Amino acid sequence: MTYQEALQYLYSSAPAFHLVGADAYKPGLQNVEALMAHFGNPHTQFPSIHVAGTNGKGSTSHLIAAVLQAAGYKVGLFTSPHLVDFRERIRINGQMIPEAEVIRFVEFLTSHSASVSQQSGLAPSFFEITTALAFDYFAREKVDIAVIEVGLGGRLDATNIITPLLSVITNIGFDHTEFLGNTLAAIAREKAGIIKPNIPCVIGETDPETAPVFLEAAERNNILGDGLETTNCRIWFADQCGYLRKCRLRDVADCQLKGLYQDKNQQTAYVALRVLSSIVKLSIVKSSIATGFAHVCSLTGLRGRWETLCEQPLTICDTGHNSHGLKYVFDQLASLLTAQRSHSGAVSHLHIVFGMVSDKDVDEVMNLLPHDAHYYFTQAQTHRAIPAKDLVQMFGAGEAFNDVTSAIRAAQKNAADKDIVFIGGSNYVVGEALTLF
After folding, report:
1. What span, in angstroms and rounded, lies between the C-alpha atoms of 79 and 352?
2. What is the bridge-based pairing of β-strands 235-237 and 350-354?
3. Average pLDDT, the chain
4. Of the ranges 118-127, 148-157, 358-367, which one carries the lowest mean pLDDT score?
């Protein structure tokens, strides 16, 4: 079996959410528990950190993993979705899982498919199989610790079979409401499902609608409390701790992630790392935090977060894909455009290559789009993509391009040297942009 044949098996036998959307979503733990049992319960063979949240969970996971690497640990990292290569989802110390390991796992799975199906009662989903692959790989490679990002929600997510050293929930916003609920409190309850009895928990952002949900979950799981220095206090709201503000210049003077929204992710990761050091007793010194933050992309392979793809014209991409995340992106674009105009003394224009998938809060996002820009609406190669012509109609302006490459080339051709080109709206648009550059 070749690597491409292994991927074809994964995608065709168990359709992936990033390709087909809701039809691939299989909530609940019964399937994955049976699947893990078939592989000897690898998720019990290494300590872990569990990270959920509407936005920022990927960046926060990478920040934590980078610091643990800098501290000398062998670190597994499981995230989703991938941008270019499936293997981005599963890494050890920044290195993607080898193709041979994917092939080995799929060959075993195919040769035992009948018994796996009989054991689980249902055909496992793409994400359940990928989760099993990651956990099996981490166990066999004997990682010191693994950082596990939730796929969708929390309570019923396949990753929620782990009992971690620490649970982290970055923030709550409106995304995947068809699965998680249409209020912030309902969404928070689903994500609070990763909170475990007597396991410390860090919440990234305080919100009056969601904080009571987390406090209730903390009380139910015997971890109600606050403060970082007392071992019997085990839930923290990172934005209330003030540790990043107090220690930023000394501990995290620089960070390789430059998006404005990354300040919140850095704060969440920073408090989580302090908890791991103080309560869980991992060996994490301040220099490891500084090194991990300063080299997070280099250490973990993180891509697509306010990433500069080209200097002239300045071309930037970002994976923000809902109104909660894109608000920060557009605010930063406005600041960058103002700075560019001030620095060059010339009129600079904004060119936006933009595409979305159909299960996002499209109307809310359309209301956020800056009107002083040239738009190149496009669609990624996924059935979930909204046709570019529909986006033009919704927005009432712009050009439609049937593929990401032609949209980017048109934007760069039309942009002057001092202009700015932004590419985003969807992970899939960014992923295709990365292959082009």
Report:
1. 27
2. unpaired
3. 88
4. 118-127
Q: Which two tokens stand for residue 128?
A: 């359940």
- For residue 119, give the nearest of 42, 35, 39, 13 by alpha carbon: 35
Integer-rounded Cα radius of gyration of the chain? 21
Phi, psi of 29 (to 5 degrees): -105, -10
What's the rounded mean pLDDT across residues 351-360?
91
> pLDDT-based confidence at 202, cuts 50/70/90?
very high
The distance from CA 401 to its chain's CA centroid, rounded to whole angstroms, is 27
Confidence of residue 246 (pLDDT cuts 50, 70, 90): low
What are the pLDDT digits (tens) for 99-127? 999 999 999 888 876 666 655 555 788 89
Instruction: Look up residue 417 and give its two tokens.
Output: 């040297």
* pTM exceeding 0.85: yes
What Cα–Cα distance (Å) separates residue 416 from each residue in 316, 323, 334, 339? Answer: 15, 29, 18, 16
Q: Cβ contacts of residue 85 below 8 Å, gap of 6+?
A: 96
pLDDT in tens, 299-317: 999 999 999 999 999 999 9
For residue 224, CA distances in Å to 19, 218, 231, 384 come to 40, 5, 12, 41
27 pLDDT more than 60: yes
Per-residue H/E/C for the chain: CCHHHHHHHHHHHCCCHHHHHHHHCCCCCHHHHHHHHHCCCHHHCCCEEEEECCCCHHHHHHHHHHHHHHCCCCEEEECCCCCCCHHHHEEECCEECCHHHHHHHHHHHHHCHHHHHHHHCCCCCHHHHHHHHHHHHHHHCCCCEEEEECCCCCCCCHHHHCCCCEEEECCCCCCCHHHHCCCHHHHHHHHHHHCCCCCCEEECCCCCCCHHHHHHHHHHCCCCCCCCCCCCCCEEEHHHHCHHHHHHHHHCCCCCCCCCCHHHHHHHHHHHHHHHHHCCCCCCCHHHHHHHHHCHHHHHCCCCCCEEEEECCEEEECCCCCHHHHHHHHHHHHHHHHHHHHHHCCCCCEEEEECCECCCCHHHHHHHCCCCEEEEECCCCCCCECCHHHHHHHHCCCEECCCHHHHHHHHHHHCCCCCEEEEECCHHHHHHHHHHC
Buried b (16+ CB within 10 A) or exposed e, 20-51: ebeebbbeebebbbbbbebbeebbeebbbbbb
